[in-house]
Amino acid sequence: MSEAAAALDAGLGSRMMLEMSPDRSFGVLAPAFAGNEVDFALDRYEDRGCTFLRENRCELHGTGLQPLECRFCHHDRPGQGPACHDAVGADWDSDAGRALVTRWARLTGFWERLGLPPRGHP
Ligand code: SF4
Question: Is 65 exposed, middle or buried (0-12, 13-18, 19+ CB in 10 A)?
């Protein structure tokens, strides 16, 4: 979660998406599928790959902003994303996790995209 917070601080929130837990009780911010930025993670964009993947290289590699979920799931263990997300989910299923998602939503205009009034503190 700390990498996602740092990515948000670095102004990369507009390139992230929100993956909801299976029971939708909490969300995980992740690098977006290309075209799926500032939205819920949608299966129809999955084939497009990650928005940070350029010419088979991760733009975040070595920056300290590459999320744990990526390093362990998306590439090193393809297809294991959901299981990995379960493992890191506990980190996000917390007050701090929800606050970070709310901050991202406020910074990126996520609520407005959904046609909802902004939430959270300014
Ligand atoms: S490691 Fe892969 S999934 Fe993660 S940000 Fe980089 S390109 Fe995207």
Answer: buried
Closest-lying ligand 1 atom to the alpha carbon of residue 61: 6
Residues flanking ligand 1, CB < 6 Å:
31, 50, 52-53, 58, 60, 66, 70, 74-75
Kindly tell me the sign of the dihedral angle through the C-alpha atoms of 60, 53, 75, 28.
Answer: positive
Instruction: Give burial (CB, 10 Å; 0-12/13-18/19+) of 21.
Output: middle
Distance 32 CA to ligand 1 centre (A): 9
Contact indicator for 106, 15 with CB cutoff of 8 Å: no
The per-residue DSSP string of 84-100 comes to HHHHHHHHHSSHHHHHH
Q: What is the DSSP letter of 49?
A: -
Cα 16 to averaged position of ligand 1 atoms, centre (Å): 11
Range among 12-16, 55-59, 67-71, 84-88 with highest mean pLDDT value: 12-16
For the stretch 40-63, pLDDT in tens is 999 999 999 899 999 988 898 888
